[in-house]
Specification:
The structure is a single chain. The protein is of the alpha+beta class and about 150 residues long. The protein contains four helices and six strands. A hairpin with a 4-residue loop joins strand 3 and strand 4. The radius of gyration is 15 Å and the shape is globular. The N and C termini lie far apart (about 50 Å).
C-alpha cells in the first residue's frame, strides 16, 4: 500500500524541521533510506560553488555534501512552506527561506530555495534535490555581494 498524502507531508516536514533547527549531520542522515541508493544534488554550475552540479551518491556521498555545505556556509531563520505532495511519485517539493552566510567572507544574503524530496515506502529520503540562488552564493564566496 502506498503512503498517504499525510504521511509524505509529515516525513517532508520532519526533514525540513531538522534542517531548520540545525540538527547534526548524523541526525540529518538518519532521515535518508538505508534500503535504496541515496543521493543529493544542488543544481548549478560547479565553478560558482564547490557543492553545485555534482551528484553526491551513497551514505558517504551524503555525508560529504552536508559536511562540505557546513564548512562553507551557515544559515539562520530557515522556514519552509508551500509543500506540494505527489503520492504516486512519492515526492514532496517545498519552498524554503533562510539567511545564508559564506563563512570565509562573512557576506550574507536572504534566499528562497526549493527542495524536492523523493521517498521510499517507509518515508525515508532517497533523493534530495536543491534549487537555490547560486549567483548570490558565488558573489558572497568572492566577497562581492552588494
Amino acid at each position: 500500500m502506498s503512503p498517504s498524502r499525510k504521511q509524505l507531508y509529515q516525513a517532508a516536514e520532519e526533514f525540513c524541521t531538522a534542517f531548520a533547527s540545525k540538527k547534526s549531520v548524523d541526525d540529518i542522515l538518519s532521515y535518508f533510506s538505508t534500503t535504496y541508493e541515496v543521493s543529493a544534488i544542488e543544481y548549478g554550475e560547479p565553478i560558482l560553488a564547490p557543492f553545485l552540479g555534482e551528484s553526491f551518491v551513497g551514505p558517504s556521498g551524503l555525508r560529504q555534501y552536508f559536511e562540505l555545505i557546513g564548512s562553507l556556509l551557515s544559515y539562520d531563520d530557515a522556514t519552509f512552506s508551500e509543500y506540494v505532495v505527489d503520492c504516486e511519485a512519492l515526492k514532496v517539493s517545498v519552498k524554503g527561506r533562510a539567511k545564508f552566510t559564506w563563512l570565509s567572507t562573512k557576506q550574507s544574503w536572504d534566499e528562497t530555495f526549493t527542495y524536492t524530496l523523493d521517498f521510499d515506502e517507509v518515508m525515508k529520503v532517497v533523493r534530495y534535490q536543491v534549487w537555490a540562488d547560486s549567483g548570490a552564493a558565488y558573489l558572497a564566496r568572492k566577497g562581492k555581494l552588494v
